[in-house]
Each structure stands twice: as structure tokens, then as C-alpha cells.
Amino acid sequence: MKAFATSDVGKTRQINEDFYYISSENEPVKLFIVADGMGGYNGGEIASKLAVDSARNYILSNFESSKEDKESLLNLVKNSSMYANMIVYEKAMKNEELKNMGTTLDICLIYENKAFISHIGDSRVYRIRKDFMRKLTKDHSYVQQLVDEGKITKEESVNHPKKNMLIKALGCTEYIEPDVTVKGFIKGDIMLMCSDGLTNMIPENEILKILKENLDDPSKVLVDRANELGGLDNITAVIIK
């Protein structure tokens, strides 16, 4: 298994409020996390790092006691997100400048050919298998809600003026329920975790084309391409092969 990661401030923002974590090749726990922060003076930057660090520490501390079955591992990634939410929320409550901070959080724990995923917000996790790219997460956004209700089409959602409005984010409320799922991750599969700074810039068919090419570091190619197309937000791509 190989992992690649690139994060960039983009062309229009002053601070990179994205944060990520990837396990090194020799670590026994294969863990990958992406967060896209928001709110307050430096709040987004603090929220994303705090969420990633808290979730990572929770998983590493409890992995050994949770690895025996699928349900325990799903609960592990779920509980790590809820723990991170509590940490970020409490930090925001103690500091007036950080009051409105929050973050997306996507966690992918890979164990025995399975990916255990926890998701909050509008960052995304995709799995590429052969020539098909499947989105494994559902955006917690106002625009996605409009699509689900049949009020706008998926095509109309791409340029909707409120496409960045979240209906669920970590750290904004005392309690949060993440989406959790488990998917197969077998030889030849590719996993992409990314902030919306990537997917808002590059169409999915072009992302797939880049990922299918045998590149030294596809995460850097994706981020560079997002910047070429405008780089309107912070951009983060984590790729697991």
C-alpha cells in the first residue's frame, strides 16, 4: 500500500485551513484523515488540525481493542469523530474569537482489505476500481439537500451560489452523528480523499483520468491542476493505492 498527499493554500486564500494525516508505510495502523476548516480569525486552521489530531489519537489509542470485528472498527471511526467534535466544540466555547469555527472530517481506516469510513461535511471519499470512480460519501450541504428533494438537478448544483453552505459540520454543535460505512479495498483499488477545493475545480471524469495515469505523485498533479483552473479555495488530496 502506498499513500500520497498534497495540500495547498490555492490562488485566492491567505491561510490554508485544510489539514490531513497519513500513516507512514511502516506503521501498523493504516489511517488517513482529511479536514477542511472554517470560521473565525484563524478558526478554520485551528479546527481542522484539532479535529485531525484528536481523531487520530483516539483511533491509535483504541485500535487494538477494536480490531476483532467489523462492527467494532466501524464504531471506532464513528466514536473518534464524535470525540473530535467534542474537543473542537469545547475549544470554540472557551474562546470568543473561535466561537464559529468548525470543520469537515473524513476518516479512512484500512484493515484486512476493508476501508472503514467516517464522514462529516462536504469533503469527499472516492474509490476507483478499474475504470469506475464511485463517491463513497454524501455531501452534508444545502445544495445536496436540494438535489435530494428534487428541487434542482445535479448539473444545476455545480454552479449554485450556495454550494458551500453546510448543513452539518464538526465542532459547531455539542453532539454530532457522522455517516459511517465499510467498503472493500482490494488490490488495484485507489482511494481518493479530498477537500471541496479539489472537486469544485476539477470535473470527476478528469480526476479519474489523472488517477488512472501512472504518476509518481498523483496528489500533486491533482492539486496543480485545481490551481490551474482557478484555485479558488484551499486544496487537499490524499490518495491511497
Tell me the overall shape.
globular
What is the overall number of helices?
7
Content-based structural category: alpha+beta
State the total count of DSSP E strands: 11
CATH class: Alpha Beta
Output mean pLDDT.
94
* Share of residues in helices: 25-40%
Rg, rounded, reads 17 Å
Strand fraction equals: 25-35%
Show unreliable segments: none
What is the terminal separation in angstroms? 6 Å
CATH architecture: 4-Layer Sandwich
Identify the CATH homologous superfamily: PPM-type phosphatase domain
What does this protein look like?
By secondary structure, the chain is α+β, with helices and mostly antiparallel strands. The protein has a single domain (3-138, 166-240), classed as PPM-type phosphatase domain (Phosphatase 2c, domain 1). Helix content is 33%, strand content 26%. The chain has seven helices and eleven strands. It has helices spanning 43-62, 70-94, 142-148, 154-157, 196-199, 204-212, 218-228, and strands at 3-8, 18-22, 30-38, 102-103, 105-111, 114-120, 124-129, 132-135, 179-184, 190-194, 235-240. Strands 2, 3, 4, 5, 6 and 9 form a six-stranded antiparallel beta sheet that branches. Strands 1-11-10-7-8 form a five-stranded antiparallel beta sheet. A hairpin with a 2-residue loop joins strand 5 (105-111) and strand 6. Helix 1 (43-62) runs antiparallel to helix 2 (70-94). The longest helix is centred in the middle third of the chain and has 25 residues, at 70-94.
